[in-house]
Amino acid sequence: MFEVGVMRSEEVEEVIHLEYDVLGVSPFVATSLLPVKKKVIVARVNDGIAGCATVCWNDRFEIASLAVKKEYRNAGIGAAIIEKCFEVARDLGFDSVWLETPENGPVEFYLSHGFCVESHVRNMYGNGVSGLKMVKHLS
Predict the structure, then answer these.
(1) Given a cut of 80, is residue 127 above it in pLDDT?
(2) Residues with Cβ < 8 Å from 11, sequence gap 6 or more?
(3) How far apart are CA 111 and CA 135, in angstroms?
(4) How far is residue 119 from each of residues 58, 97, 99, measured CA to CA in Å?
(5) How many domains does the chain have?
(6) 65 within 8 A of 30, measured Cβ to Cβ
């Protein structure tokens, strides 16, 4: 079983390590350098973090990252985290949620949660790695 909630201050380092392990970068660290408001949504299993999402907003609400440890994938954790992201966006008054993902990334997962492709960006992630900008309308 797992619980989903907002990251506690003592979990910062664990979130950063999880992002590096799963994504190779830490969007949490990167967004800390930007003039945006942010939160980290975490899924806790046995007092450890199994997955997390960094969300940020100013003019629009974005999921900057979503990462689930390999051993916890396909257990509903990613789905629970993304639903919590939608809840946070609604509570803040947003009617849509945006994200970017490599075109060879978890596109089917995002489509299955109501996102649609807004645009395709060539070489978004470097030479030869294109990306998708996706949006989920909450209404």
Answers:
(1) no
(2) 40, 42, 49
(3) 10
(4) 21, 14, 11
(5) 2
(6) no
pLDDT 10s digits, 19-42? 999 999 999 999 988 899 999 999
Nearest to 54 by CA among 27, 86, 82, 16: 27
Alpha-carbon distance of 76 to 72, in angstroms, equals: 8
Same-domain check for residues 19 and 7? yes
* Span 51-79, average pLDDT: 96
CB 54 within 8 A of CB 63: yes
Burial of 69-86, coded b for 16+ CB within 10 Å and e otherwise, reads: beebeebebbebbbebbb
Q: Are the C-beta atoms of 94 and 68 separated by less than 8 Å? A: no
Domain holding 19: CATH number? Answer: 3.40.630.30
With a cut of 90, say whether residue 125 has pLDDT above it. no
The H or E element containing residue 31 is helix 27-32
What pLDDT digit, counting tens, does each position of 86-120 carry? 999 999 999 999 999 999 889 999 999 999 999 98
Q: How is residue 3 written in tokens?
A: 């619980």
Q: Give the helix, strand, coil percentages of the chain, each rounded to 5.
A: 30, 35, 30
